[in-house]
Design a protein that fits this description.
By secondary structure, the protein is mainly alpha-helical. The chain has helices at residues 2-9, 12-46, 71-76, 84-112; strands at 57-60, 80-82, 125-127, 134-136. It has 3 domains: 1-50 and 85-113, Non-ribosomal Peptide Synthetase Peptidyl Carrier Protein, Chain A (Orthogonal Bundle); 54-82, no CATH class; 120-152, no CATH class. The strands form 2 sheets. Strands 1-2 form a two-stranded antiparallel ribbon. Strands 3-4 form a two-stranded antiparallel sheet. A hairpin with a 6-residue loop joins β3 (125-127) and β4 (134-136). The chain starts with a helix and ends in a 16-residue tail after the last strand.
C-alpha cells in the first residue's frame, strides 16, 4: 500500500497541484499586503484620511454603546457590525490577483503558441491524363503509355 501511495503522490499532476497551492498561498499573502499596505493608504488619504479596514456599520450596539472609533473597539464591545471596508479590501485583492493570473496565463499562452505548420512542399509528381499513372512533374511524355503531355 505504501508503494502505491508513493506512486500516486509522485505523479506529475499531483506535484504540480501541490506546488500551485503553495505558490498561490504565498502569492495571496503578497497581494493582500500590496492592497492593505500600499494601495489602500493613498486611496484613504485622498478620500479624507479614511482607513478602509475601519469602515463598518453597526447593526446592534454592544456593551458600552455606540459610537465606536474602530472596528476593533466595536468587536471588543460585542457589537454586531457589517464590515464593508474589509469587503472592499478583499474585492480589490481579488481583482489584483485575477489580473496577475490573467497576465501570467496570457504570457504562458504566447510562449506555448504553436508556429503555423509549414506550407506544403511543391508537388514532385503529376498524373498522366491518359493512363492516370504517377509521373515526374517535368515529364513531357508518359513513360508508361508514351502519350505526349505537352510542355512541363
Amino acid at each position: 500500500m505504501f508503494q502505491e501511495f508513493k506512486k500516486f503522490i509522485m505523479r506529475g499532476n499531483v506535484l504540480d497541484l501541490a506546488i500551485g497551492v503553495i505558490i498561490g498561498g504565498a502569492f495571496g499573502a503578497i497581494v493582500k499586503s500590496l492592497v492593505d499596505d500600499v494601495i489602500m493608504p493613498p486611496i484613504g488619504l485622498l478620500l479624507g484620511r479614511v482607513d478602509f479596514a475601519n469602515l463598518f456599520a453597526v447593526l446592534k450596539g454592544g456593551d458600552p454603546g455606540v459610537p465606536y472609533a474602530t472596528l476593533a473597539d466595536a468587536q471588543a464591545a460585542g457589537a454586531v457590525t457589517i464590515n464593508y471596508g474589509l469587503f472592499i479590501n478583499t474585492v480589490i485583492s481579488f481583482l489584483i490577483t485575477a489580473l496577475a493570473i490573467f497576465l501570467i496565463i496570457r504570457a504562458a499562452n504566447k510562449l506555448q503558441k504553436q508556429e503555423p505548420p509549414p506550407p506544403p512542399a511543391a508537388p514532385t509528381t503529376k498524373d498522366c491524363p491518359y493512363c492516370f499513372t504517377s509521373i515526374a512533374i517535368q515529364a513531357t511524355r508518359c513513360p508508361n503509355c508514351t502519350s505526349e503531355l505537352g510542355e512541363a
